[in-house]
Structures are given as C-alpha cells and as structure tokens.
C-alpha cells in the first residue's frame, strides 16, 4: 500500500490539481497577458460554495481556481448537459475556450477579475 499516494488522493479537491502547480489569478494575468485557453475544468464544492478549477492548454503543468465570473461561465456550460462529465468531455473535444483576464474595480470600489472570452 502506498500511503503517500493515498494521502495525496484524499487531500486533492480535484484530479485536475494532481501534479500541477496552482497559480493565483494575479499570476495567470501576469503570465498570459494576451490570454490563454482553458483546456479542462471541474467544479469544487467547499461547504456548499462551489468554484471552478481549470487547466491551461498553453501550460499543462499548471491549474488555477476561478471566482464568481468564471463560476457563472461554467454553470452556463453545465446547464446544457445531463452530467458534469458529459459536459467536460464535450468541452475537451471542442478544444476548450480562450479567455483573457484582467483586474478591475466594481462601482463600489471592490476588486474584480474581468474575463473576456476571445
């Protein structure tokens, strides 16, 4: 029995995180200023709050978590399929979606990540 591998599996929120470096939104914006392609996604559930995790076509060694805007985008995709796995399979088969992220402020002055679908 490989206790290390069992421990990694038990503490991973998604298979998409396995053997990948997690970057912050700020790091993603800095690293890909012209945009990047989301290659795959998963929805994580943390005490009833859901948020997405993504992999990146241009660098398969990384992943990143999405906030409210990206979660709404994934919810829209999922709404057209019976299961999340069916949606993910179709998404991967279609080649993903290219986006560009930038930072901004809401009308109340709060920070927000802007997402532009390219």
Task: Characterize the structure shown.
By secondary structure, the chain is of the alpha+beta class. It has one domain. The protein contains four helices and six strands.
Rg over CA atoms: 15 Å
The biggest beta sheet reads:
6 strands, mixed
Shape: globular
Give the helix proportion (percent range). Answer: 25-40%
The total of helices stands at 4
- Supply the number of structural domains: 1
Uncertain stretches of 5 or more adjacent residues: none
Q: Provide the succession of SSEs.
A: HEHEEEHHEE
Distance between the termini: 46 Å
| Major sheet strand order | 1-4-3-2-5-6
Strand content: 35-45%
Total beta strands: 6
SS-based class: alpha+beta
Mean pLDDT score:
91
Could you state the oligomeric state of the chains shown? single chain
Concise overview:
Helices cover 31% and strands 38% of the residues. The protein is built from 4 helices and 6 strands. The radius of gyration is 15 Å and the shape is globular.
What tags apply to this protein structure?
alpha+beta; six-stranded mixed beta sheet; 31% helix
Topology:
Blueprint: H1 3-11, E1 21-23, H2 25-31, E2 36-46, E3 49-56, E4 59-65, H3 68-78, H4 84-93, E5 97-105, E6 111-117
Parallel strand pairs: 1-4
Antiparallel strand pairs: 2-3, 2-5, 3-4, 5-6
